Amino acid sequence: MAKKFRGIYAALLTPFVGDEIATDQFRDNILKFNEQDLAGYVVLGSTGECVSISDEESERLVRTAREAAAKGKTIIAGTARESTRLTIDFTNRMADLGVDAALVRPPSYFKAKMTKEALKKHFLAVADRSRVPIIVYNIPQNTGLSLEAQLILELSEHPNIVGLKESSGTISFLGELIRRLPADFSYLLGHGSAFLPALLMGASGAILAVANAAPALCAKTFRLFNEGKIGEAATLQLDLVPLNKAVMESYGIAGLKYALDRQGWYGGPVRLPLLPMEEKGQAEIDALLKKLGLIG
Amino acid sequence: MAKKFRGIYAALLTPFVGDEIATDQFRDNILKFNEQDLAGYVVLGSTGECVSISDEESERLVRTAREAAAKGKTIIAGTARESTRLTIDFTNRMADLGVDAALVRPPSYFKAKMTKEALKKHFLAVADRSRVPIIVYNIPQNTGLSLEAQLILELSEHPNIVGLKESSGTISFLGELIRRLPADFSYLLGHGSAFLPALLMGASGAILAVANAAPALCAKTFRLFNEGKIGEAATLQLDLVPLNKAVMESYGIAGLKYALDRQGWYGGPVRLPLLPMEEKGQAEIDALLKKLGLIG
Amino acid sequence: MAKKFRGIYAALLTPFVGDEIATDQFRDNILKFNEQDLAGYVVLGSTGECVSISDEESERLVRTAREAAAKGKTIIAGTARESTRLTIDFTNRMADLGVDAALVRPPSYFKAKMTKEALKKHFLAVADRSRVPIIVYNIPQNTGLSLEAQLILELSEHPNIVGLKESSGTISFLGELIRRLPADFSYLLGHGSAFLPALLMGASGAILAVANAAPALCAKTFRLFNEGKIGEAATLQLDLVPLNKAVMESYGIAGLKYALDRQGWYGGPVRLPLLPMEEKGQAEIDALLKKLGLIG
Amino acid sequence: MAKKFRGIYAALLTPFVGDEIATDQFRDNILKFNEQDLAGYVVLGSTGECVSISDEESERLVRTAREAAAKGKTIIAGTARESTRLTIDFTNRMADLGVDAALVRPPSYFKAKMTKEALKKHFLAVADRSRVPIIVYNIPQNTGLSLEAQLILELSEHPNIVGLKESSGTISFLGELIRRLPADFSYLLGHGSAFLPALLMGASGAILAVANAAPALCAKTFRLFNEGKIGEAATLQLDLVPLNKAVMESYGIAGLKYALDRQGWYGGPVRLPLLPMEEKGQAEIDALLKKLGLIG
């Protein structure tokens, strides 16, 4: 039986000072997140600007996360590369650093050739040779590829493929899959505005970028859901929507980093090609944080 | 205050005998649906193959529905045309036949020109001149156009624009809008696999094609939700997903009609360019109906 | 042998006075176009705002065109509807008014169901029953559907399917098809910025919206091409690009109508939901017309 | 004045033996290509499976190409990474190996944030710091991003941005740009089925994957064009279309490699996640090569 991933995981930001990764600030953030009721952390996810940092920087981040994470906090690392071989190599480098699982989005550069068959072969080969369990990652908004339900079902039969992070947030997709997946397979929503509905329909947890800015609120929503207080949970979920939209769509990672800066954590700048947030976004995010009681 | 549309509305099929519309069979179906706990009916929706029938046929269908619908059942008619003028004309023809509201999807042929400004002007002009309330209809899978949240907000200020049917089923879109809409504005989900999550997040009801095939199940899901039995409601919602997928995606309207035929209602053929269902679909739909206890 | 459509066809605008169709102005425009070296006219094409006008208005336009067109000018009418039945009916109404051919875009509302098989059945049924030859119309920018090369090949075997109007302007698509089509099949480009390259690769002509604004220039490009003066033709084609972009993309039909007004023809307003051109577009179009020597 | 890139460049395949890059076979292929009338080579392009090979492998390929290329053959290396910083670093590593120019596609993972402003800043930063000239690379089919004409115009003002490789093959896009670019800016088409039309409209050359399989035919098409024999050139261009489609769409890089194997060059296997070509493709490619006289 695979370990089931339950609860809220923060998809951690990668802090930079100037254009250099800042492991001290990364550690400090994690130490603060440790105090929250989070199940664990994703390092090198999309929110972590994974595609913008080098392999060596990636290693330093994962080492730092492993050391800083409180006991019992799960560490998941994003390890996808565009080829099967490079993905396996990098996944095992991360496995050697002690991550609990690898989050693997599909190769997407050769889109037209990424048929179900090609993706299946890719993920199975990675799962066969990875020394840690694999969580498949569907994020069509970034990859331009939507994984089919049938592919997920077939992959879920592999003992080393233990979960799905689904970031399109399509609840009907979850509904189509949830009863047909193995009992120990983890369905983790990757959308901060729709994770309560996903939990209601059977998801075991969520991996959330917005959990960097509002970890307590995310954790509380999950707790209320678990306690059967669905109405209260729905109220919190709706409370979260405007902030989630601001930091995921309107202002993106730059906005999310700003939201951390405002709360005394370290957000700092984004790395190019992402652009810094425009001034006008600051007032909007300030207002959203105030409304949520996250700043005075 | 606008009347709030609550509960489950069936998006009615249009029955044909041969290639002619069959108002007798249409009436018989409605008489049977009247026994169910449905709030009302949509005539000339996408499920009704609205784009494939003539104005004169449309009138006959609406007349029949008006006569056959039990007292208290709301009748909503799909009335969109590609120009503002033609939409107004047709909406008022339907108004004259006694429909309670008009469901209006955006013009979409000149996609690149259907800016927020153009769509706003269109819907406001229709609302100004329509003799019945307007429900805006977002169905990007058919129109190739997604209505922006901001457009819906601006349209919701018009006293004669009273609701939204949202058929993409995107729950985060609902979350973004629901608290910012007027209290008497109706948010109606148009997706049979995600309406419970939508209700949880604040939708007032749903307009469902699958309600033709499983009206009691849809209505019961709504009732359980209203009684606060969310867990039981979620079970029913998940029960419904495979049938909904079969009749909305895999086999489409031809599959939905078959599902009616199997239950002793009248489904009959689809009109070209829709194709009849392939044989193999029949066994699949039979199995799904059996599993739901809808056939023996 | 089908008649081969060669040369430049103007996709005629539909003039309105206020919101009413203006057949006098339509006639006057055609009389002026008759003086140009154009092969004929398309009435009720996309440029003619076909989706925004009623059947009865359509008939008046076609009657007017038939009467006003000089002897030898071909009249093609856009006759597509969303169902096979409605398309056949309307096509034959237009046939009865004396059009030489019908231009038929695919049904596209039920996009997900418009498989190659469904589209083939549709077009074959229309061709079987139409009393005039059919020209298939590929315009993915408006329909959201791209016709496959293989579908065109199969349709081209039907004796009453005599041509393709291809408005995506994709030259590789033409290259894929041109040698495999029957000798008497007409490949007509529907893109004003790429018709010379299409002619070079084997197209027999073009149906152009921009020919309303610059008929002589379009006709001359074709003539130079026919005379083997490819370099001079390319110069004219490039001359035409900025105007074509302005009236097809930046400002659309409203811009095209303005370009007619400025030259002493009748453009007039567009019908809603199309919006009037913004002021700033006027100066841009003026400059483009001046540069082409079309206004003083 | 920047050097103008004229003529046909082969976008070289990366040969593997098993799953290891095969520099000997790569050298042998280049030695054979040297005999053809090609202007140069692109190493690490999409055709070279650039996203599937490591930095160290990339260096070995570029070194090999530099050594093997005949005097006067230009070497262009694909050097894009997802961040500005990583792109600059890798570009200059390649510059140090003696490449003549770098081909840089846009970052595309954070699609929604890759506004014109972000892309402009990215490309300008790369151009500022690159020690070799930059050729911007538009390949929306792989990146999911289309570069705007206006962006290209603005980038073309930078002295170190010297060209565009345009792989969508959209001739109207070329028409929109060609007269507004600096005289020494190179517009290179990246589509084997549409490069003659592009040349006719002002492109200075083409970077072609199909030139691996049919270098002489590509080169001859260019030569005929230059000699003003447009009709003969068009015949060759059309001859090339079926092979180009087979190796670019139907069978992809695996098919292209097979086409080399069949001609006595080295194609070999593709690297996962690309799949080997299915058996049935072999007969089709054999037939196409035979028809072109490339095999007996």
What does this structure look like?
The structure is a homotetramer of 296-residue chains. Chain A has 296 residues and is of the alpha/beta class. Chain A has one domain: TIM Barrel (Alpha-Beta Barrel). Chain A is built from twelve helices and ten strands. Chain A has an eight-stranded parallel beta barrel with strand order 1-4-5-6-7-8-9-10, surrounded by four helices. In chain A, strands 2-3 form a two-stranded antiparallel ribbon. Chain A is globular and about 50 Å long. The relative contact order of chain A is 0.14. The model of chain A has no long low-confidence stretch (mean pLDDT 97). Chains in contact: A-B, A-D, B-C, C-D. The interface between A and D is large, with 39 and 39 residues.
Uncertain runs of chain A are none
CATH superfamily of chain A: Aldolase class I
Largest interface: A-D, 39 and 39 residues
- The SSE order of chain A reads EEEHEHEHEHEHHEHEHEHHHH
In percent, how helical is the residue content of chain A?
40-55%
CATH topology title of chain A: TIM Barrel
Report how far the terminal alpha carbons of chain A are from each other: 46 Å
Q: How do the strands of the widest beta sheet of chain A line up side by side?
A: 1-4-5-6-7-8-9-10
Kindly name the structural category of chain A: alpha/beta
Quaternary organisation = homotetramer
Tally of individual domains of chain A: 1
Evaluate the radius of gyration of chain A.
18 Å
The CATH class of chain A, by name, is: Alpha Beta
Give the strand tally of chain A.
10
What gross morphology of chain A would you assign?
globular
Distinct helical segment count of chain A: 12
